[in-house]
Amino acid sequence: MAVAAPKPVDDADLRCVAAVAAMIGTLDENKADPEVVSGLTAIFMYYLGKVDARYPGLDYAAILTALLSAPGYDRQLPVDLRRCGGEAEERGAMLKDLGERMKSAVPLNPATRPG
């Protein structure tokens, strides 16, 4: 017997998309630190990419609206933010480490190195 595929609304990564979208939505774009906005946008795109790979063509507006307005989601949001933030920190540390290792493994001429 085949196991039913999980519904997108039950997807932990989709809940991260929703949680980060909610965070971004609370920012005052005139006062928000650009680094905070950039970091949240990167995290949003990370989770969006994971979800999109599993559910191509997903109606994000409809499903995120349903998820964010679901009864009790206000209690789930802090839990999701902690979980998603922890994973994002782990991935960020992994990427930083990878970057350092790649600099050592593939030294570039400083004059041609980007940035």
From TrEMBL:
> Which superkingdom heads the taxonomic lineage of this protein's source?
Bacteria
According to UniProt, the name of this protein is Uncharacterized protein
In its UniProt entry, the species of origin is given as Novosphingobium flavum
